[in-house]
Design brief:
alpha/beta
C-alpha cells in the first residue's frame, strides 16, 4: 500500500529531473510505501523515454504542455497516497524526509499542508515561502527578513510550490489545483481554498528539514526568458485577482516593486541591470494600460 505519493510536473530538462529522482531513491526512508509519479508536459518524448527505460520504479504520464496545476492534477488522479508531495523537478533531497512528513500529519490532526526549508546548492537559504497578495517594497523587505530568521506567518504567507506536502483529503476538499492558472500563484490559490473548504486548515513551515531548490533550474536565465516569465506571472495575477476580488491591487504593487528595483540599480550605477529592468517595467506598464482599456 502506498502511503506517500510524490508528484513531479516536468518540462524538457532531463538531467535536472534525473538528479531529483536519484536523490529521492537515495533518501527513501519508507520503502514500498512511496510512489513517484512524473507528469510530463514536455514537447518531445526524450524525457518520457528516459523514465520508461531507466526508472522502472517511477510512474510517468505524458501530457501536452498543459501547465503546472493541470499537470499536478493528472498525477494526483493516478496517485494512491494519503500524503501528497508536489515537488519541483529542480529539487534535490539531501536527507530522509518522507517518514517525517507522514508523522507530522499523524501528529497534527488540523494540519492540511506544509513546506520545509529550501536551500541553494551552497547551503544558503532559498525562498521557502512568500507573502500572500502583497508585493510592495516594504512587504518585500519584511518577507526577506522573515525568511532569514525562518518566521512563517501563516495568515499572511504561502508555502513555495517547489515542495508542497499536502493531506490528500484536504487537497480533494479544496478542489485540486485551479487549471485556469497555467503557471504561478497556484499554491497561493490552493491554500486559500484549503482554508475555506477543507476540514483541516492549518498551514505550517518546518525549518528543521531541508531540500535543495535550484530555483529556475529548468529555465533559460536570459532576459527574454525573464520577460516571458513576468508575462506569464502577470496573466496569472490578473485571473487570480479577479477570482479573489482583489481589484488588481497585487499587480499594481508588483509594478511598483519593479520600479523600486530599477531605482536601486540606478543608484548603484548597474548599467546592464538598468537596461534589463527598464524592459521588465515596460511589461508591467503595458499590462496596467491594457487593464484600464478593458474598463
Amino acid at each position: 500500500m502506498k502511503v506517500l505519493s510524490i508528484i513531479i510536473v516536468s518540462y524538457q530538462n532531463v538531467q535536472v529531473l534525473r538528479n531529483c529522482l536519484d536523490s529521492i531513491k537515495k533518501f527513501n526512508d519508507i520503502g514500498d510505501g512511496l510512489e513517484v509519479i512524473v507528469s510530463d508536459n514536455s514537447l518531445d518524448n526524450q524525457l518520457y523515454d528516459t523514465i520508461i527505460n531507466g526508472y522502472k520504479w517511477v510512474t510517468i504520464i505524458k501530457n501536452d504542455n498543459i501547465g503546472f496545476g493541470a499537470g499536478n492534477n493528472r498525477g494526483f488522479n493516478v496517485s494512491q497516497g494519503d500524503v501528497l508531495l508536489f515537488l519541483n523537478p529542480d529539487t534535490v533531497l539531501v536527507e530522509p524526509i518522507f517518514d517525517f512528513a507522514i508523522k507530522q500529519f499523524q501528529k497534527y490532526d488540523s494540519l492540511a499542508l506544509f513546506g520545509v526549508q529550501l536551500r541553494k546548492e551552497d547551503g544558503a537559504k532559498n525562498s521557502s515561502f512568500f507573502t500572500i497578495d502583497s508585493y510592495s517594497p516594504i512587504a518585500g523587505i519584511k518577507e526577506k527578513l522573515c525568511r532569514k530568521i525562518g518566521l512563517f506567518r501563516e495568515k499572511k504567507m504561502f508555502i513555495s510550490g517547489a515542495n508542497l506536502f499536502v493531506r490528500r483529503l484536504a487537497f480533494e476538499q479544496a478542489g485540486l489545483f485551479d487549471e485556469n492558472i497555467f503557471m504561478y500563484l497556484e499554491e497561493a490559490d490552493l491554500i486559500k481554498r484549503i482554508k475555506l473548504y477543507s476540514e483541516t486548515k492549518r498551514i505550517r513551515f518546518f525549518k528543521e528539514k531541508s531540500i535543495i531548490h535550484l530555483e529556475g533550474g529548468t529555465q533559460d536565465p536570459g532576459l527574454e526568458s525573464k520577460i516571458n516569465m513576468h508575462k506569464r506571472l502577470i496573466s496569472s495575477e490578473i485571473y487570480y485577482s479577479e477570482k479573489w476580488n482583489l481589484k488588481n491591487r497585487p499587480l499594481r504593487e508588483r509594478r511598483k516593486y519593479q520600479k523600486f528595483k530599477l531605482n536601486i540599480y540606478r543608484i548603484c550605477l548597474k548599467r546592464k541591470s538598468i537596461k534589463d529592468q527598464k524592459m521588465i517595467v515596460a511589461v508591467y506598464d503595458e499590462a496596467i494600460k491594457n487593464l484600464k482599456g478593458r474598463k
